[in-house]
Amino acid sequence: MATEKNIYHIGKPFAAMDDDVMRPIEAFPTKLWWGAFGISLMAAVLGVSTILYSFFVGLGVFAINNPVGWGFFIVNFVFWVGIGHAGTLISAILFLFRQKWRTSINRAAEAMTIFAVIVAAIFPLIHIGRPWFVYWAFPYPNERGPLWANFRSPLLWDLFAISTYFSVSLIFWYMGLVPDFATLRDRFERYKANSKIGKFLLEMKSLAYKVMAIGWVGSAKTWHHYEKMVMILSALATPLVLSVHTIVSFDFATSVIPGWHATIFPPYFVAGAIYSGFAMVMTLMIITREVFKLKEYITIKHLENMAIVILVTGMMVSFAYTVEFVMAAYSASHNEQYAFINRMTGPFAWAFWIMFTCNVVSPHFLWFKKLRTNIKVLFVISIVVNIGMWFERFVIVIISLHRDYLPSSWDSYDPTWADYAVMIGSFGIFFTLFLMFIRTIPSIALAEVKADEANASLSHH
Amino acid sequence: MSNETTAQTKVFRSFEEVGATPEEAQQDLALWNGKSEFPSNIEEMIERGVNANLDRKSFLTFMGASISMATLAACREPVEKIVPYVDRPMEYQPGQARYFASTRISSRGITPILVKTREGKPIKIEGLADHPLFKGATTADTFASIWDLYDPDRVKSPLKKDGSSFKSVKWDEAIAEAAAALKAKTRVIASPTFSPAEEGARARLGAAVVYDATGTLSEVAAGNKASFGSATIPAHRFDEADAILAIEADFLGTWLASDLYTKQFASRRDPAGKMNQLFVAESAMSLTGSNADRRLALVAGTHTTFALGLANLLLPGSALAGDGNVRGAVQAFTPAVVAKVTGLDEKQIIELAEDLKKFKGKSLVVGGGVNARTNVAGELQIAVNLLNAILANEGKTVSTKAALKANLEISDAAKLDALIADMKAGKVETLVIDRCNPVYELPVASGFSEALKSVKNVIFIGDHLNDTAVLATQVLPVSHFLEAWSDASAHGVYGIVQPVIRPLSDTMPVLEIYGRLTGNNTSAYEQVKKSHAANARGQAWNSTLASGFAVVEQQGAGGARAFRSAALKDVKAPLEAQVGYRLNLIESVGLGDGAGANISFRHELPDPVTKITWDNVLLISPADAKTLKIKTQDLLRVNAGKVTFEIPAFVQPGMRRGSLALAIGFGQSHIGQVGAGVGQNGYALQTYNAGQIGSSGISITLEKIGKYDMLASTQRHYEFAVIRGLARQVDLKTFEKAAREKKPELLHEHEEKPFGGKAKGLYEKHNYEEGYRWNLNIDLNKCTGCSSCVMACYSENNIPAVGKSEINRGREMSWLRIDRYYIYENDAAEKADADLVNPDVFFQPVMCQHCENAPCENVCPVGATGHSSDGLNYMSYNRCIGTRYCSNNCPYKVRRYNWFENWENKLRDPQQYALNPDVTVRSRGVIEKCSFCQQRIAEKRQLSKVEGRAIRDGEIQTACQQACSAGAITFGNINSADTQVKKANDNMRTYKILAQINVEPSVKYMVRVKNRPEAKA
Fold first, then answer.
1. Rounded to an integer, what distance in angstroms lies between the CA atom of residue A156 and that of residue B488?
2. Which residues in chain A have their CB less than 8 angstroms from residue B718's CB?
């Protein structure tokens, strides 16, 4: 363990660490930030206005048809829910397993989770034909007699799974933030005394952090309670990491459609979610550490650890693909067999082969230490993996639907401008939120890093 | 409130006061006495308020509430007054349908109909089940004709040319002007009519040149005139024939009385009974060809060669064997010559002749339609008559008793040619065009539209501003057949066309137009009554009116005619193989001759074979497509004579190299908002030879132009894959063996019981111990794919037409679709057929299967789709939020989604009247699907309850069942032992599609049996 401690040891005074991490929050935004924010916001506006347009005109503006009743929306939904997996995994499961290296990345990962789930939650809402009646899906007491939510429907389970996951993730995230908000509160108190310009804004910011810190004093007792609570929340959040994508996979697995109807789906989806989630964390972390000069906190060792997780989950995903094919071949169901032949050779075979290349081939570069410690390689692979995972959902949703049982109803799927607009919009919303996050909230869990640092110092010096 | 109120009487304003102390109650009572219940002014209110311990705050609360409630009172829904019948017609019950028997006349004949009206508006046309001959038989076109009535683009008042446009005029003015024009040198051009009253009335305008657009009537009539002396279209007894040979005659789809013929044909398709055998020789794959037990693909335009070749082989030993004319006419057509010309194998022709020989007197040969009209009038029909005479069918399966039409009034080619010449020469000052569209329908080569320019007065009688009407000087709008009196005589039956609604706009029955133009003001009603007296064989008027018809002559054997062999002299069938591309024009099931092209549903109905909507396509053989490297959708430039246009290609199996086909009825420049500009005009390509129009074997050139056009197809072409178990057919031998040995597994692999019957569902099974359980059974051996059911379903269930671009996106709304598959018996057959590609065609109607273990039901998050106690998978539109999960999870993909709003602000007045008020229209964002005509079930259930009995077997008919001329569909309760549907389900041929996924569909299918001729060594 000693070597590990050495690797993550930063060796800076706490005040200097504060300065490093708080810099993006306290300084005026750079041009780079403004540029990124502007582009993201524009994308978000494009997406939202397209959605509003579809509310007025009808879902016909998208490419979905009969038989492909679910298109880009559900692909994006599963994709974003998958992204939203890494955060809680890192903060809860890695916490329980005492993986110290998680401290530098868990904050951003959790933020990513929250935003990804927000983005994901948009899709089920907008993909329904009469979104103004979406509340009918909630089991609330009403005047409609026996008409209630149908508890047999996996979509309803989805609703519960995702809202639970979102609430717990949000609480978890916020709780972890409280000591850091207190630090910010204290620092802003100091600035307030010195600053002459931008007084009002500073006041407001200071007030906000004060409220968010909910009176944190940092006493030994507070810390004691805090750590107990983190432990309990981790234990609570752990099953959720597994349940969310398990239940999302039920949307498909409980159906009768060849290519959907498979028992491998729950573990396969969870592995895929972690795979894509980690890839997304890696993409974001590489950018953050470069732009905000946090290389001391997010070291190459952190990234290497993530790379290993990606390699392992990537192989799990590959294994699941194999199992699906073997099961289809072994099933003696010609519909099932055809579904998989069609994946590889049908009109959407290109999507399958993109998926295959990105998800099955690309992680194997990470076997080599030289490559998995190379930032550029990691950055490229992290993006490639997410492209692959997006196509995995494309393959599952669209390829399975476009040719199911009766050849007479087979059709194609041809995305329209609106599909792309909403997809771009989803990235826009995500990055807008993320960029706002790094400007207002410490992107590294300072308190935890400091605690580790202190522990390390205690045992070393 | 009065002063008499005593202390004993307990009066209270609210329930709170009841429990008050006696003192308080007393105090309250005192307050009441002498005062009105509600304070009339503010002072009193304040006073009372103070007395009632109303503090200032409460007062303000009340005042605030009062003000807000006062404003609420202003927000009420606008009052809509429903005006009840002040003087309700007798027997008229609002909300209940009334039916009127009538007759529909189309360009191909007549169909006895029953018109369903609600609140005085016709909403659906159904077949007249009581008719002795038709027994309810209908075509898709008949169902579509209800929308003709409510077509917003109909001419709404008489029009007069005013510069380059038309202006609306009064009838009196229009009639006066037209009558004046008639005094000049007048000629009349018209289409054939089946109405004795109209025929008589029209004659007063002058001798008309009568032509028919598709040529079916004229060809058959001309051929019969040449062969037998009179232009009579005989009765074809498909029900009496053991073997049928159709040469370029799509009698199940578009040829003459296809509705009646379908019924007769299907009545002999029970493999357990005496099943008939159908041979079809044709160029393009037609509906009839799709149903053939053996189909011979001819090169386009070589049908007469084929017929004479057959006659040559059959002649020895027949009654006409000694006739020199006949021998002389046929002897050149040896099997070798015929094979060379038609593209068939010699063996095929000889085998067919051998087969037909076995059915002397019990066979039926038919031929001739638009796809067989060559330069010699009635050529094929003469050859067909010869064949029927040789086979001794004349007087048996072909009979003049109860003929389709005796002495059809139709002009020969010379008269048409003379008319056009006269018009050109300025010898015609006034031309009356009576309900036909010659500018569109006559070949460009005829020069009719040029000649029309030399005519001073062009009086157009019709319903749409079509290509001819726009060139007229005067347009006299005729009423729809549901708005006007008329009559019809065909098939030995006299029928009445009775109005069921007053004309929706300022139109006039054609009988009255004729009358008033010739100074006769008798109403159409009187004219029809008079005609009835002359034609109905003394049947009482009221009785004819109630039943809709009077039987004049029964169908039956007899009426044999002697074949005049001299007629064969004019027949000039090709003896040499052709060069280049030959085109046959064909009629489409949806559009027919094109007169109804302004109805979206006619375009939306997929062609039964190609499954293309909203377009006509150039059908090209797979062999040519391979040579020319043409794919379906590639645009081709077609050229014939002076006519050139671009049209998408469609590679159609079952066509011979060098043959092409194109549907007529499309490509009209003017007809209305819907129909104008859809597809290309095939009529334009017709040849013209001194008045004789040729539409078969037209020599054309083709050019690939490197562009393509998106075709809206409801079923795309894919490689043959995974259709095992869906489309099941066996040959008659196999069926007989299975029946003998009681081995249903010979007919269909036994997938009916997945997991050996041990498959378990997650949920409890539905319980039907009491009551009904509805099931539907489709006999695929009877189903011809005619698509009548699809159109009836559109009409019954208010299904929207969505147009080409939406269908292109895969968003057609039809609740009932007919899947078309191509089948080869085995790989060897496919290999042997590699060049021709002439597989079997298989039709399978698919609607919601109302599964017992419905996959759609458990996935809906809001429970909008569920299972009813009588076995229906129901859909609550109002509850649906539109997740489309049910549609994804439907293995049959029968659920339809409303991608856009299809109704609100989408209908043009008066289209809304065509809606069935018993079926709700569905808003945007909800799923819809087949309900087993729930409204019909509900209606009969109600009736049975009122009458205190159970619903009788066969009492409920679904719209598709009712529309099926072939009688392929059975519907009923399987909870009762002896229902028709139960018997059908127990039939050995019955199977379920996708039985292996254990969804337990309530719709079952019966294996198709092909009565293949025995194979020769």
1. 61
2. 403, 407, 410
